[in-house]
Amino acid sequence: MNSAIIKGMGYYVPSNVVTNDDLSKIMDTNDEWITERTGIKERRWINSKEESTSSMALEASKNAIADAKIDKAAIDFIIFATLSPDYYFPGPGVTLQKELGLDTIGALDVRNQCSGFVYALSIADQYIKTGMYENILVVGSEYHSGGLDKTTRGRGVSVIFGDGAGAAIVSKSPSADRGILSTHLHAQGEYAEELALIGPSTKRWVPEIFNGKGLEDEAIYPYMNGTFVFKHAVTRFPQVIGEALEKNGHQSTDIDLLIPHQANLRISQFVQKKMQLRDDQVFNNIQKYGNTTAASIPIALAEAKQAGKVKEGDLICLAAFGSGFTWASALIRW
Length: 334
Ligand code: UT7
Fold this sequence. Notes:
A five-stranded mixed beta sheet has the order 1-7-6-4-5, sandwiched between helices. By secondary structure, the chain is of the alpha/beta class. A hairpin with a 3-residue loop joins strand 12 and strand 13. It is globular and about 60 Å long. The protein is built from eleven helices and 13 strands. It binds oxa(dethia)-CoA (UT7). Oxa(dethia)-CoA (UT7) binds near residues 37 and 233.
């Protein structure tokens, strides 16, 4: 059976920086609260009509293709993870295929929120293993800022989320010693509504929302039971990382770099402590970008790689937790 490596990484974030002080001018919040509770100092929010979930994905993909040093025509398949697609349907995978100028290759959309990139990576891994494809473009991209409640009512959610995209070229490994060792996927649908955007949806179609209270209807904004999500996250992250280590006969001391989904710096620090990892074994960049959901792991991985923190032969662990609830991990011999 083949194994799959990540041959190239790329990311893209909008140029518009929004600091905590900027937010305090539009809602009742402050730098101290946001920094203390989340570690976030600033995030990128789209402020141009030209940018979208698929346009950011396009830029991230071009960077990943360049990093992988492959011809884009060698890409066999696209897997696109997002909770903020350009349209309700079709998903943005097909738009990315068109914008990249690729032939009629398949494009799959993944709806697993913060765990979306690891779920997508797991799918790519299976296709490479079986020999069905040789080069797969895996993307996570999110345009949150247009849909957040930026009043004091929505401050518990809106200060956390940022826009951005990350992409990976997942390819057939040239050597059996390198590649994705295993992926581990979990879900617990009983908590679906603890972190969700209920409307617009088929349960809450647009006319129903607008015939009612219109834009005042809270259903058009994401809802998060923050404390509840936090408690589950700090349990599930260590569990799913431990599962990946155990499956491959490793211990946490073997990890060269853990890239946790950038949900909250406090969650990452809690996980680091629980797993007894040193500072240099964990990569965080939430301070600059906020929580970019499906994009957070590929953005962080691309930055870490650029900074020389991900090298051939390293043991890299990716882990995520979020809406669904879903959680997932991947262990990679780079
Ligand atoms: O990526 C997907 C998964 N998501 C996560 O993992 C997020 C998990 N949850 C969290 O990170 C945290 O729960 C938050 C950062 C979202 C919130 O932190 P918290 O410590 O759970 O705060 P809280 O929601 O319990 O709110 C505490 C207080 C409240 O005021 P009172 O009722 O104590 O007077 C809130 O109204 O802080 C208030 N508050 C704010 N104050 C200033 C909530 N948001 C803000 C804000 N600025 N932005």
